[in-house]
Specification:
Elements lengths: L5 E5 L5 E6 L4 H5 L7 H4 L8 E6 L2 E9 L6 E7 L4 H8 L5 E6 L4 E4 L1 H7 L11 H4 L8 H8 L3 E9 L5 E13 L2 E10 L1 H23 L25 H13 L6 E4 L6 H10 L8 E5 L5 H9 L15 H4 L4 E5 L6 H13 L1 E2 L8 E2 L3 E6 L3 H6 L5 H7 L2 E4 L10 H16 L5 E2 L1 H9 L5 H15 L4 E2 L33 H19 L4 H8 L3 H10 L7
């Protein structure tokens, strides 16, 4: 129904007394509102001299002035230019879900993509309040947060039930909408796994096109047509003195473009440091490429690093390696001490001469790449054990950043715990308000062989089994109930002192892990699924450890 201009006469209490319109039908339509408060039927802020109002799904422009002929005010209302049918049809062709809410949280529109993702007929939900459509906590609603804060809420993962009781998992973004600096509503963008897979497929097609274009003879430097979000130094959480010194050193050398060796145990955050250095460097607008040298078979790592030429071996093709992908950017070699020694020698040549050849290739390719490396063992010990070439060590070790393990950062335990709880509260849509003092004390008494990563997994386990809003001792994995060794004043297990000279730390950690796995396995009568759940790891990870320690469950 078209909307014509309307002039409303209001008394001092904003009660509609009469109205006039350029359309013969409009006064009749509005006559039913005579004698009613204007805000009872019109979404309008009467404290403003002008702005936007909403009536029956239409956005209206209004101007308000004093009635010089009598008491009260005169309200002039006109329809905005309305191309909504065209816009709605256009949005129905977009794969991701689109929702439009008014400033009070009532749904005005959603597209077909939203119907598909949330499995709800839009005809049955348009006009309803968000909390009447979804079963969720208002504090974790992307749209309500955007309306309340008047700021965007980006990429929030939500778990919620639709009106039919089905559990839906989506990634949502909410953006407030303004007209003349006046908040009029919010738009929500909804993505599910299928939507993300579609974008991933498109990105792969585009990537292949770019590679094919380069191989066809276009030697222009590859441009970045998309930007990845990397960690920055603001994401490195901790107030411990040793940790703060490591962060300070990393900040200072980020702009220097020198080679950096990052030393830290598994789970201390070596890649977070590497990404933060890249994000603060001159190369931040280029690629950051990472490879875990321990996860790549020795027979493949050379081809992965340097690329291959077609015909080199059966099934080989012209394929760029990581050095070419990271051109102009940063290459992070994680656990470089796990790389085969003959590959280390070839890597040394590349670092010295700034050029390399693909496997089977005859042409040298120049490269401009900053090398960041990491080891999870003490570098000099790796050299003594012939796991790291001495000459390569001096090439990649212009600056060494030592990340302290979590057991040496006990003063950061509580800070990290609350930081992770805040993150997990958004991810799991749970409002966790407190953590028991006994939990913090238990955390500080634990040795954390898995470091910060293990702390995150322990808290994630708690979120999966807890029912209230507080994390208590019973929410922790069962292995925390295993009796720990007595500690010295410095926090080092006293029992370890006499045996450290005979075994490495890695061997001691493996022995401790084996004892914990066997103890929890016995507690659950050798049930693999329940044991894995209690330990907070995947069933496949537990199977790997059982095979590693030659433990045969009866299940």
């Amino acid at each position: 129904m078209a909307f014509s201009s309307v002039i409303c006469f209001l008394d001092d209490n904003n009660i509609l007394r009469s109205c006039e319109s350029s359309s013969d039908g409009m006064p009749g339509i509005w006559s039913e509102y005579t004698g009613k408060l204007i805000t009872d039927f019109l979404d309008i802020d009467v404290t403003l001299a002008s702005g936007y109002a909403r009536w029956q799904g239409k956005v209206l422009k209004f101007v308000q002035s004093k009635n010089r002929m009598g008491k009260g005010t005169i309200l002039f209302i006109a329809a905005c230019s309305d191309h909504s049918a065209i816009y709605e049809q256009a949005m129905d062709n977009i794969a991701e879900g689109i929702q439009v809410f008014d400033r009070n949280g009532y749904l005005l529109f959603c597209n077909k993509g939203n119907e598909r993702i949330e499995k709800m007929d839009r005809a049955k939900i348009i006009g309803k309040h968000l909390l009447d459509i979804y079963e969720l906590d208002a504090d974790f609603s992307t749209i309500l947060t955007a309306l309340k804060t008047k700021a965007p809420v980006i990429n929030r993962c939500d778990n919620f039930k639709n009106k039919y009781g089905e559990m839906i998992t989506t990634m949502n973004s909410g953006y407030p909408l303004f007209m003349d600096d006046q908040l009029i509503g919010a738009i929500g963008l909804v993505q599910d796994n299928s939507t993300l897979e579609t974008y991933w497929t498109r990105a792969n097609v585009f990537e292949k096109y770019l590679s094919k274009r380069e191989q066809g003879g276009n030697h222009e430097k590859r441009k970045n047509f998309y930007t990845l979000k990397y960690y920055t130094f603001n994401d490195l959480i901790g107030a411990n003195t040793s940790f703060a010194e490591a962060v300070h050193l990393a900040r200072n050398i980020a702009l220097q473009d020198c080679a950096v060796l990052i030393y830290g145990e598994t789970g201390t955050g070596k890649e977070l440091f590497a990404q933060s250095i890249h994000s603060a460097s001159k190369r931040k607008y280029k690629e950051f490429v990472a490879i875990n040298c321990a996860a790549i078979p020795e027979s493949l790592i050379e081809g992965i690093l340097f690329g291959t030429e077609k015909g080199t071996f059966t099934g080989s093709s012209d394929r760029m390696g990581l050095f070419e992908q990271a051109e102009g950017g940063t290459l992070f070699l994680d656990e470089i001490n796990s790389m085969a020694l003959h590959v280390q020698s070839k890597l040394l040549r590349v670092l010295q001469e700034k050029k390399f050849r693909r496997v089977g290739g005859l042409k040298d390719i120049e490269c401009d790449v900053r090398i960041l490396s990491s080891t999870n063992e003490e570098p000099l010990a790796c050299i003594e054990n012939s796991r790291l070439r001495r000459d390569l060590y001096y090439r990649i070790n212009t600056v060494t950043v030592n990340i302290p393990p979590l057991r040496q950062r006990l003063d950061d335990i509580e800070l990290l715990t609350h930081y992770f709880i805040k993150q997990l509260s958004c991810r799991y849509s749970k409002k966790v308000t407190t953590v028991a003092d006994q939990v913090i004390e238990t955390f500080k008494a634990y040795t954390w062989p898995g470091n910060v990563r293990e702390l995150l997994h322990v808290l994630e386990y708690a979120f999966n089994i807890m029912e209230g809003q507080r994390i208590d001792l019973h929410c922790l994995p069962k292995y925390f109930a295993v009796q720990q060794s007595p500690k010295t004043v410095t926090g080092t297990p006293a029992a370890c002192k006499p045996i450290l000279h005979h075994r490495t730390l890695e061997e001691l950690m493996a022995e401790y892990e084996q004892k914990v796995v066997i103890q929890v396995l016995q507690d659950y009568n050798y049930n693999v699924s329940k044991t894995a759940q209690a330990l907070g790891i995947k069933r496949q990870s537990l199977q790997y450890r059982l095979k590693k320690y030659n433990v045969r469950p009866t299940e």
